[in-house]
Amino acid sequence: MNRPEKTYWQSLDQKRDGKAYRRRLLREYEESTRTPSQVSRRDFLAVMGASLALAGLAGCRRPVEKIIPYVAQPEEIIPGIANYYATTMPLGTSAYGLIVECHEGRPTKIEGNPHHPTTRGATDHLIQAAILGLYDPDRSGKVLHTGAEKTFDDFVAFWLEQYDTFINNKGEGLAILSESFASPTLARLKRQFQNTFPKAIWISHEPLDNEHIRQATERLAGKTLEPRYDFAKAGIILAVDSDFLYGEGDHLIAAADFASRRGTADAHGTMNRLYAVESAFTVTGSMADHRRPGVPNMIGNYVLAVATELKRRGKYPYDDLPGRLHGALDHAWLKAVVDDLVDAGPDGLILAGNRQPAWVHELIIKIQSGLGQVGSTVKYVRRNDVSYSRLSDLNRLVNNMRDGNVTTLVMLGGNPVYSAPKDFGFASALQKVTHSIHLSAYVDETSRLAEWHLPRAHFLESWGDAVAIDGTASVIQPMIAPLFDGHSDVELFSLLATGTAERAYDMVRTTWQDKIKNDFESGWRRILHDGINTTDGNTSEIVDFRPDANLDITIPMTTPTTDSLDVVYIPSALYDGRFANNGWLQEFPDPITKLAWDNAALVSAATADSLQVTNGDLVLLALKEHEVRLPIWICPGLAGNTVVLPLGYGRDTIGRVADGVGFDTYKVRLSDGMYIARGATLQKTGETYVMATTQDHNRMADRPIVREGTLTEYQEHPEFAKEMVEHPPLKSIYREHDYSTGYQWGMVIDLNKCIGCGACTIACQCENNIPIVGKEQVHHGREMHWVRIDRYFAGDENDPAIVHMPVPCQQCENAPCESVCPVAATVHDKEGLNNMTYNRCIGTRYCSNNCPYKVRRFNFFNYTSDMPEVVRMAQNPDVTVRFRGVMEKCTFCTQRISRAKIKANQDGRELVDGEVQTACQQACPTKAIAFGNINDADSHVTGLKRLPRNYALLGEFNTKPRTSYLAKLRNPHPLLERRAKKTGHDIDHG
Amino acid sequence: MSTEAPHIPTSPGAPPLVTGNQTFASVTENICRITERKTPPVWYLALGAAMSLLLVLFGSIGYLFWEGTGIWGLNNPVGWGWAIINFVWWVGIGHAGTLISAILFLLRQRWRTSINRFAEAMTLFAISCALIFPGIHVGRIWVAYWMFPIPNQMQMWPNFRSPLLWDVFAVSTYFAASLLFWFTGLIPDLATFRDRATSKIKKYIFGFLALGWRGGNRQWRHYELAYLILAGISTPLVLSVHSVVSTDFAISIIPGWHTTIFPPYFVAGAIFSGFAMVVTLTIIARKLFHLEDFITVNHLERMNKIILLTGSMVGYAYGMEFFIAWYSGNIYEQAVFLNRAFGQYAWAYWIMISCNVIVPQLFWFRKLRTSIPVMFIASLLINVGMWFERFVIVVTSLAQDFLPANWDYYRPTIWDISTFVGSFGLFFTLFLLFIRFLPMISITEVKAVLPQADPHQGGSHE
């Protein structure tokens, strides 16, 4: 076809070549035809103005603020590179040596100091959470005088008046109530104070303490001593109502040493054996090979029975045992324990917990002596520079206050109005005191009743020092200037003692002049750097113990009934309540109950049945004339007719996090039963209360999840854990990825070492900026913890065993989450990491659905939007803060891997084994978590993966997890094991 | 050659497809009259109610956008809840329309003519409702478009291995094909409307929509060919859409989801629920608009037979799931099914079984399957049951999967409920607009099944 040439036109206007059209055309193309050089200054400014306006819009997501660079950059601070400093966290008479990671001058993460004997590089949940405590916006920043704001200078002026008065009368009417401490500087200042004011009273008080043990040593040896256990040496341990692994004493080293005797490398290794008799269900009890629930008041009888049996065998060389025992005791059990203890001799260890009365401790010390344990697995040490808490002192002080003998009371820390025994009537006695001064981090119950409130600096903001039970002294050095104008203990002590507010730094240095022998400046710098004093000038005296007093046995004659219950007071995730405003700790699931954001009256299932109560029933617990209203929570394995009360909750004045959470169990804590009380009654109110737990189902439902065997089974069938699941050959229909080169990250979690303490959970929360979500969200099952500890009960409901299983992302090589994500937001990298690209995630939650381990966490709301400005300083700058609608999960601390790789790259070398530690691994007190390159045949983690008890959780689905587990072993006494198998009782292995 | 359904002799004694002694003119008159007469007040009332519900939907979605998916009852093990249940349920309902139009057309089921338009419209509206949910259930709604393969500066494509992506394609294709099919079927009727239009505006609109239809022979030939081709295209889609939707579950590793029976089982369930919904709506419409001559009990009975068939298939699938769970020896699979029947969601399971398996068995009896009240209640119950089927599948498997430590209980919030209820607002609003402004029964196709359209009484020309 002959096609005429066509003219294409866009519109009739164009076709007609109209003027209007040309005008329009000009307008349309004018802008773009102008070359960049022709952009006028006006246009440029207009465009820039628009960009700025857009930048303002972008400010919805990123605040646009003036930032000022360092005028003179500090030499050691490189933006983006963390600095690490050593310091010490004091808690009561304990001292934890720490290394703190600081970014541009703000501390963001705490690790244990590997050189410090109380931490050895590990931490617990309380230490980890101290970072959040530092940035707590509810901490007090004001000096208050009868509620009105004053300055610290006003207080100093006030105190100087007081000082002059008391100088004249030698301190008559002056009283100091401090927390207990173990600190050379504080002790020096206390001595100085006592010299200045000889008639003044100085007492210390701690709500949770080991006073009963010291009372026992005082009676038996005439000296105040503390036990130092060596669990690394102990092959047989009988723990009597003791939570040495978690809640008492220097639990970090106890756990490390205990675990060192637990993780047998191969099938020929040996293990220690732990017997536990306890009234509460503790972390220690959960690790026991044999655990017995015991009524708290009757537990002494168990010890008596052990002593009697030992006596029969000539191993108890004293004649002070009563003839008749109250309460039945299982003879097979007794025989097994005593056999083991006798066989172990000096390598055995019997110990009792802080809750047990002094006479039980006396008996324990005598048994220890008889068996030769003293000096071997336990040493009794006298500590210098310590101020101990004594209940009788507090009683005396309160009496003096009530009688009007105290005109001025200075309370240095502590919160006695809240935590002192309620029968003392501290609050009413405080009204009789003319001037009361309270140094406290929060405007708390005591501050509100005191005349003066002084803000207390956090330990990360203050200079100070502390001394551990083995005599290691270390310096507390500040990481940051006080955020809220707080004042340190040393500062206050100095003001009290000398009348002048000296710099804490100078006071500490003065103390240490004696400790550093040669060149002070270089020695001082060395100590600040290392965190410990290697030229230790303060070794504790080791006293050869000679029991010479007769046993003062006060055996309870009654077993508890439903009308007269026994009560046990235990520390909670908030310790004694001082950490109540810490969101991480509030949301920290209790290792045993898995309750978060609450405490409850814990009772056994049988007791709950006989009291006709169930989970969430609000009850009125009455003890003498005191009572508290709180909910019931059933905890299997508690002693019958016993109520366990965690302390530290039920606040209403101290902060946004703590207020209104839980129930104040101090209301029923009285001086004659500080740890164990008798005669409580429980009454249903008919109301119910909702509690948030992170684990609703407590049984493993006969699934091979936590694989467990006995040591004997392991020796006979080393591969028992793998053989617990039969499955077809694991073949993928796809070509498998090649992971044979480069770094290939893998993790091994030794279930035999894991005690379930949860330090890893909080360490991870801190490292990875994991938000807290609050009780309601936890109740909805939306907690965000990247590594959770699953806790399962096994066996009989009234005498169950517990197993713990930390579950982080398993980093599956065949990750079910990856294939289902429609936008490829979760993908694998060459090093075997299952990565999460937050920017790409649109939040379908399909990955979480398809994760068999359910380790993925979804931001259902914008959990960080209402985070106060100051708390944002706690965030790790190396980790993205996630927005609403995004999935997140464990990354194997990919930022730490990157940091280490960059460093190795700069040095031109390969990473060495152990150079990258994940946060959970680093915090773990028992070294239950190993991490490293599984492509390196010599790495620690590869060695562990070769162990016969290594298994993959749900590995039969061919997910090929990079995280594997080492099966749990128990080491039961053969006699008891045979019996358990026969009756199906005792510990159930499954 | 005619591509219209060939004349299949109606067996003597079979009830006529259209009753009331209709002529071509009366058919046109009866159907057109519905849209041409003055709007009845009851329509306004109904539209008001539907739009109120639509506002509930908009409000719920607005709040969802503002606050985040946390307003729903989802939790850590249960990442999908009512949104996905509703999605699958609405998609399922959307199956009847195309099945009736396309598959029954190809199978020469002439009785479909009275109900196909109606069913197709219902399909479109149900899919519209369904499409809301995958869009709004994601965490970051403002980037939900990343599910589509849109070229971008990051050269980032969606993950083609993800069944969610398959969903996007399957459902959007189905919607597009259904829309075309529905519109093509409408063209001759739209031309009739244009010709009968009394106002200029109507004439203009219907004229535009009728695409210049004149009813000429060539047009008819092209039209019928196009219709046949579209029926051919739509037919596999009927089977594919719910098969693909079922892979959302079947591809996963979760016990109770990871099963090969899902595609046929989902398709059967979808047809089952779709027909139930058609029956429900048809009963109402024929009563309200006096269409008993066009939609006879005969039509309803045939649909009830399909309900009985697909219901029994679904029941078989339920049983087979249990058998396979036992036979597989997989303890997780076994536990999930025991949990379904006897666990924390047993109530939902037994609602599902009662409504989906027991209720359709009534239709074995001719008396019951021809009784309007019985079938009305049964169809409602079946839709309840099918919603619970999706609830049981989605929730019970997630709530109790592998590790008991993760187990939790899912309960919906008021926002889950309001979003679901609101989606009915959208459905009924669209439906009411449809029956007011468009022919709800295909005029041309009904005329084709009148006895007058077949003067040879089924006999051949030869």
Instruction: Please tally the β strands of chain B and state the result.
Output: 0
Number of strands of chain A: 41
Total discrete domains of chain A: 4
> What is the chains' assembly state?
heterodimer
- CA distance, first residue to last residue of chain B: 15 Å
**Which strand order does the major sheet of chain A show?**
5-4-18-17-16-6-8
The percentage helix of chain A is 25-40%
Distance between the termini of chain A: 88 Å
Strand content of chain A: 15-25%
Structural class of chain B: mainly alpha
How many H/I helices of chain A?
Answer: 32
Which descriptor suits the 3D outline of chain B? globular
| Strand content bin of chain B | under 5%
Task: Describe the sheet with the most strands of chain B.
Answer: none
Protein traits:
A: alpha/beta, Rossmann fold, Barwin-like endoglucanases, six-stranded mixed beta sheet, 32 helices, disordered N terminus, B: 462 residues, mainly alpha, Formate dehydrogenase/DMSO reductase fold, 67% helix
